[in-house]
Amino acid sequence: MADYQLSYTGDQVNTAIGQIVDKNITGTLTVETLDLTNPLAITQGGTGKNNRIDAFSNLADYGSVTESAANDIPGVWGDKGSGVHSFTGSSGSGGASIEGLVSDSIIYNWVTYRSSGGSFSPDAVTQFRITNTGQCYTRFGYTGQTVWSTPWTRLLTTSNGIQIVKLWENASPASAFREQTITVESGDAYIVVCRTHTNDGNNTISCIAFENMRTIIVGRGFSNAPLGIVTRALQCDNGNLSFSKGYSQNTYGSDTENNSVVIPIKIYSVKGVI
């Protein structure tokens, strides 16, 4: 009896079946070892790998969009399809690359599609990003837009939706603090901790400052001797915290400019309670 051999080369099947169609097969059909040397590529609907573990990994991490940050838009991500990508480092600086924008992060990319004329095309993209420090962000955009409808927005990660995060710390708390603006990530409100005087590390003044409002930080100042009332004004506008000059008042007379008092040393953001 004749033997008919089936041999696999990659995802292509070479066989003599075409020669035996409509024939009465009475022989023995033998199958050789299936050697999948060329798995079907992802772009052709395959996994691109020849074992289960690598196949799942390959489908999950589908690669970078491109190196240019200009391509970090909904339309480009929509064409990639749903999946996840890990950015383990920065290949650029100053936002010149996507890695430079989201380095040390994992991005989950979900794409929704619309039907038109019997075919489907990407319609919108929702992304969830986790950094290597555990911070979580999300953003959303339509593929027809060149900008994200909702840019990266930090999620509340603590219980009851309340989040308090340290945003800034003074590297020189024992130095005079001139009139200046500190820009931080915007919050519902801010906790500002100030040192009463450059020479006094044991006493602090704390206040809660709200967005789009002016706050007067007031306390009793100490140096080598009591200074009396010390003040500094703070204006908060969308994460821009503008501190005025410091003032001290030993008597009930006029204030004296003194940038060695009310030294901001830490700023915290408060979200989820306003």
How big is the Rg? 32 Å
- The shape, in one word, is elongated
Task: Describe the main β-sheet briefly.
Answer: 5 strands, antiparallel
Structural class determined from secondary elements: mainly beta
Q: Sketch the topology as an H/E string, one letter per element.
A: EEEHHEHEEEEEEEEEEEEE
Beta content: over 45%
- List the total number of helices: 3
How much helical structure, as a percent, in the residues?
under 10%
Q: In terms of per-residue confidence, which ranges show pLDDT below 50 for 5 or more consecutive residues?
A: 6-23, 90-95
| First and last CA, distance | 85 Å
Major beta sheet, strand line-up: 4-5-6-7-8
Average residue pLDDT: 76
Total strands: the figure is 17
Would you give an account of this structure?
Mean pLDDT is 76; it is low at 6-23 and 90-95. The protein contains three helices and 17 strands. The termini are far apart. The chain is mainly beta and 274 residues long. 16% of the residues are buried. The protein has helices at residues 52-60, 74-80, 98-102, and strands at 3-9, 12-15, 28-31, 83-87, 105-116, 119-131, 136-142, 150-154, 163-169, 180-183, 189-197, 200-210, 213-222, 226-237, 240-249, 256-257, 261-271. A five-stranded antiparallel beta sheet has the order 4-5-6-7-8, with helices on one face. Strands 10, 13, 14, 15 and 16 form a five-stranded antiparallel beta sheet that branches.
